[in-house]
Every structure is written in C-alpha cells, then in structure tokens.
Design a protein that fits this description.
Blueprint (H helix, E strand, L loop, with lengths): L6 H23 L9 H22 L1 H7 L8 H33 L11 H27 L4 H6 L1
Helix pairs in contact: 1-2, 1-5, 2-4, 2-5, 4-5
C-alpha cells in the first residue's frame, strides 16, 4: 500500500487520467452544434465526470487511506502530511469540477416538462466539457506538483 500512496504513483495516475480527458475535449468539441444527437457525447462527459469524482475522492482521502493501512507514522511524517495536504486540495477541486460536469449533463436528461433545456442542450454539453477541460488542467498541475514542485513551505508548516 505504501507504493499506491506514494507521490510519484499518485502523480502518474493523475497523468494517466488526464489523457482521456484531453482526448474527450477534442472529440466532443468537434461535433458540438454539428451533430443533432449528442447522446454519445453526453455519455463521454458523464463518464469522464465520474472518473473525476472518483479520483477526487481518492486524492482527498489519501491521509485516511494511509491511516487505514497503518502508514500514518512514517519516518518522514511531516513530508507525508504535506503530500496529504496537496492531494486533499487537488482532490476537492477535482471532485467539485467533476460534479459540475455531471450536473450539466444531468440537466439535459431531466424531462423537458420539469426543466426545459430544448434549445440549450449543446450549450450544457459545452459547459460540461469546459468543466472537463478545467479538471484536466488541474490534474496536469497536480502532476507537476507531485513530481517537481511540492512546496517546501507546506512541508515546513507541517
């Protein structure tokens, strides 16, 4: 479990998750306002949103996972707490942005008799796609922090 909670492993998984996010941006954006049926694109944004939410929860709860598996008293505990802090912050961001992407798509799925979205479906898919893009950029930044720029000030504060 130590390997799975290591900062480089987390950074690598974040990088791997960001790849389909960027591919989705390209694939969905090229058919926006062109294709009459956006079901497949809605499924793509929904799927990526769920991945964002799931990975956000995992990042957010890194400290809890370390505690559950008895890794809470490491020799370099100050460093681990700093990594926990950074993962928590990026995890919350990923979780919230993923939820916003999901909300955009779910608004379309609600029957028009409850919430009429008839003329704005493409705009809602685009908004969900923007959330995916922001989430992808956030993950790339998280990768850079995990690999290269873990702030020493955070380490010193813990």
């Amino acid at each position: 479990m130590l390997f799975l909670t290591a900062r480089y492993t987390i950074g690598l998984v974040s990088l791997l998750i960001s790849i389909p996010m960027f591919i989705s941006l390209f694939e969905v954006s090229k058919v926006l306002w062109v294709k009459p049926d956006m079901k497949e694109e809605m499924d793509i944004v929904t799927g990526i949103g769920i991945i964002m939410i799931g990975w956000g929860v995992v990042l957010e709860e890194r400290k809890s996972l370390r505690d559950i598996f008895g890794l809470g008293e490491a020799q370099n505990e100050q460093w681990q707490l700093a990594v926990d802090h950074v993962c928590h912050n990026y995890g919350v961001g990923q979780l919230c942005i993923g939820l916003m992407a999901e909300i955009c798509i779910e608004l379309i799925k609600i029957p028009n008799t409850i919430i009429y979205t008839g003329e704005v479906d493409d705009y809602l898919v685009a908004a969900g796609l923007i959330c995916v893009g922001v989430g992808a950029l956030l993950l790339v930044r998280h990768v850079l922090v995990m690999f290269f720029f873990l702030p020493r000030s955070i380490v010193a504060a813990h």
